[in-house]
Amino acid sequence: MRRNPVFHIAMSMYSLIYFVPLLWMALSALKSNEEIAKDPLSLPTSWDFGVFPEAFNAGGLGKYAINSAIVTGTCTTAVLLFGSMAAFAFSRLQFKFSKQLMALITLGLILPLQSYFIAQNALFDSLGIKDTRMALILPYTAMGLPLAIWLFRAYIQNLPKEIFEAARVDGASDLKVYQTILIPMLKPGIATVAVFTVLSAWNEFLLALVYIQNDDLKTIPTGLLTFSTRYSTNYHLLFAALTIVTVPMIIVYIIFNRKVIEGLTEGAVK
Amino acid sequence: MKPTARWIPYFLVAPAFAIFSIAVLGPIIATFGLSLTDWNGFNTPSFVGFENFIRAFHDKIYMNSYWHAGVYIAATLILEVVVGLFLAGLVSSKKSTTFYRVAFFTPVMLPLVVISVLWTFLLNPDLGILNRILGQLGLESWQHIWLGDQSTALLSISIISGWIFAGFYMAIFYAGFQRIPSTIIESARLDGASEWQLLRGIKIPMVKNLTEVAILLCFTGGIQVFDLVYVLTNGGPYDTTQVPTTYLVRVVFRDQQMGYGSALAVILTLVVVGVGLIYNKVRTKDDVVVEY
To answer: Which residues of B touch A138 (CB under 8 A)?
Structure first.
């Protein structure tokens, strides 16, 4: 395990495959459209950061970000709360139909979105909730729950049984046990499920594309696509918008990189 | 344990189950039902038996879409899983490689739509840097209209997919490698094993079950690929990158053929579930390998 300069030089070169596209995106935002068209490889001649507020205001990016935040926040809260409640019942309490209900929920882990979204679309149509935030919150929550329940159940089963039994002896009801004992002990699991749910809701595209036509309710992925068709020839504005969307995510990711990587891989492998 | 009160478990399960039933279970059953009907979304669905399925198997675009998905999956097995395994071997062979791991994983957490829009520009024949770099290197004959040329479009999508997800598989394998008892690795090193021999002889065999999971994920993810294809080519040019999901969206939301679309959705569902079941039958149930 000694230090090996050749290794680090080679790895740094390989990292360029990831850095160059993102760097090119950010630098192109600072160039004029003529400069971009003339020489895509040139560096910006002036460092005018005014393009970022311009793009932010022109395309309603703030609006899309708020929508994404509301949808993601609501469905993540629902997934964490309802998922942990159900997982507690499935892993620690005996009740009729527990096996059958769990089997149905497990089904949700393997079924592709395409297996239900046509009828879901028709249902939302008849309920009149298309073009409302509910049309995204409801399916995102439903899609997140199976994995959340599955992961929470695995966590709870790894906790020592005695803790729950001791609380029982002290006369606590199951709801009390859930609130005061389970939730604090479930924290690492909550972080994993939260990462997974937040990112899948924040990035989801297909349902957002189908259910939301009203520009005021679009989330970041569909909003950005609208932006890119509206300003398809205004390159530097488009690059600025892409940068505005990605840079905050990358900053958050760098701060919490361990949790993010863990959350996304664990969620997929389980 | 017996619950302290009989209603408590049902109370705990009810919200999750209600949401799941309304948004997923009910619609699945309804989609299966709709697949046996002719319906445009407005008229009353009329029962047509298996007509939609017969039509699907004669639908060249639909059948070809599975071929395209197959090519994409084969390409991404190499560009994502194999490359990811190799990267994991590299970053686990030395200390202080956090920087590389974080860098390689970056595209995984970004929205696919954003990445796809970025790549349409990177590959743009006039503005993109790829053709420009090839030109500067004197490789003009290598320049292509990458996403607009029938011979390169699907390959380009696969390569972009590799750029995004190789880091994801790297992270899975890296986590697996970290769980191999360090005594095994250290004693092999003392015996003079090279890093490459370590990877081939110890690390890869010990994460065999993770490799199987990775192949399954690559398959189930690949057959459902949508965002990338929709933004990069939307199935074009001339349907040469049409995959099951993009065609499905076109049939349902552009052509308004809900009944036929439901049949296409049912076929896709059966393929995904079928592969999942086969995987469960053949996967390694071996305690020697490291559990994730």
So the answer is: 19, 22-23
Which tokens in the block code for residue A236? 């530097």
C-alpha–C-alpha distance, residues B210 and B290, integer Å: 9
Q: What is the ipTM of this complex?
A: 0.89
Chain B residues whose beta carbon lies within 8 Å of the beta carbon of residue A95:
3, 6, 9-10
Nearest-angstrom CA–CA distance, A208 and B256: 18
Nearest-CA distance from A93 to chain B in Å? Answer: 5
Fold of B60-279: MetI-like fold (1.10.3720)
**pTM here?**
0.90
Q: How crowded is residue A66: how many other Cβ atoms within 10 Å of its Cβ?
A: 13
- pLDDT tens-digit map of A46-102: 877 888 888 888 888 999 999 999 999 999 999 999 999 999 999 989 999 999 999
Min Cα–Cα distance to chain B from A119, Å:
5
Whether residue A134 lies inside any domain: the answer is: yes
Residue B15 has pLDDT above 50, yes or no: yes
Prior bond of B237 cis (ω within 30°) = yes
Same structural domain for residues A257 and A127? yes
**What is the chain A residue with the closest CA to B24?**
A116
Same domain (yes/no): A18, A112: no
CATH number at residue A238: 1.10.3720.10
Domain boundaries, chain B: 60-279
Q: What is the distance, to the nearest Å, from the Cα of residue A199 to the centroid of all Cα atoms in its chain?
A: 1
Chain B nearest CA to A205, separation (Å): 7
- Domain assignment present for A202: yes
**Chain B residue with minimal CA distance to A164?**
B1
Reported as a single tens digit per residue, the pLDDT across B19-75 is 999 999 999 999 999 999 999 888 888 899 999 999 999 999 999 999 999 999 999
d(CA B112, CA B211): 24
Partners of residue A4 in chain B, C-beta under 8 Å: 94
